[in-house]
């Protein structure tokens, strides 16, 4: 499809004309192009940087049809680039579906026995195997590896690190030799120094960050994906953990202070990106919720949108709106930085040059 669009193009904030031909953006006019819009805001395709396509809502492995349906939901909200942050299934078949978002895979979660959600990750009896397994998952993934940094230790009754500091350094070095970056699930405080000092590239959640570890992240350039819509489930997790009162109180405290934690990290210069943790306990399609949550946690609405669009794309090595880039963008009728309502109602989603009008949330019709 050949198309023409005119509107305010972000992040430059300039009114300009764009053309699309053969699924690619052109800054030069294209003959016989159909005008899709002559006003509005045109934003590089949104990024959910923590999105589990392949984990069924409520738990368990998703089948192919279910994974496709999850990816369709993400696309229809404008999330056109997904970093999977760990999936129990191989989603490479989605690459053959040009109508679905691009997935950047991190392989499977790597954990210890009984120290993560059952059946989702690779469980290592001996932590000395971690460097080899990390290298293996680095070769399997798309430039990322996901390890579980902490989880409840039932014998201690609270969150505890899974790995020694020395083995973390070996494992992260192994991933870097393979050309991959490493991210880690981490809720509490104790695992953070070891992860950051070992050279971890990103932290997921990061609710236990303190002034000291925030400073360490800023010095190391470690990124943070806070997943605030997931953190809002912590009170429910605490309510279900009556056998572990110390852990329950800890989770409530982490939830209570998380928005201040994110604001402090942002003020310190820690790079922050948007991720929903969709899959499992979070339904897919909540990218607007996470942008809105970041805007309530110390980021301006412009910065929150950037964290879910052009800045996240740059971080992940994917282009935004550029001459010759894939035509992956979202068109809004009103400025998406102005209100939550604008984010909820994209006029059009354009993926690889194909137009996907907004799906009605009630009827499911386009």
Structure, described:
By secondary structure, the protein is an alpha/beta fold. The protein folds into two domains: 2-43 and 319-356, Roll (Urease, subunit C, domain 1); 46-315, TIM Barrel (Alpha-Beta Barrel), CATH 3.20.20.140. Helix content is 31%, strand content 22%. The protein has helices at 64-76, 130-140, 165-177, 192-197, 211-220, 228-231, 234-239, 245-267, 287-295, 301-307, 310-315, 340-344; strands spanning 3-9, 14-21, 24-26, 34-37, 41-44, 46-48, 79-83, 102-104, 110-111, 122-123, 144-148, 150-153, 158-161, 181-186, 202-205, 223-225, 329-332, 346-351, 354-357. The strands form five sheets. Strands 1, 2, 3, 4, 5, 17, 18 and 19 form an eight-stranded mixed sheet that branches. This is Cytosine deaminase and related metal-dependent hydrolases.
In short:
This protein is of the alpha/beta class and about 375 residues long.
Q: Secondary-structure map with pairings?
A:
Blueprint: E1 3-9, E2 14-21, E3 24-26, E4 34-37, E5 41-44, E6 46-48, H1 64-76, E7 79-83, E8 102-104, E9 110-111, E10 122-123, H2 130-140, E11 144-148, E12 150-153, E13 158-161, H3 165-177, E14 181-186, H4 192-197, E15 202-205, H5 211-220, E16 223-225, H6 228-231, H7 234-239, H8 245-267, H9 287-295, H10 301-307, H11 310-315, E17 329-332, H12 340-344, E18 346-351, E19 354-357
Parallel strand pairs: 1-4, 1-5, 6-7, 7-8, 9-10, 11-14, 14-15, 15-16
Antiparallel strand pairs: 1-2, 2-3, 5-17, 12-13, 17-18, 18-19
Helix pairs in contact: 2-3, 9-10
GO molecular function: hydrolase activity, acting on carbon-nitrogen (but not peptide) bonds
Protein name: Cytosine deaminase and related metal-dependent hydrolases
Keywords: Hydrolase
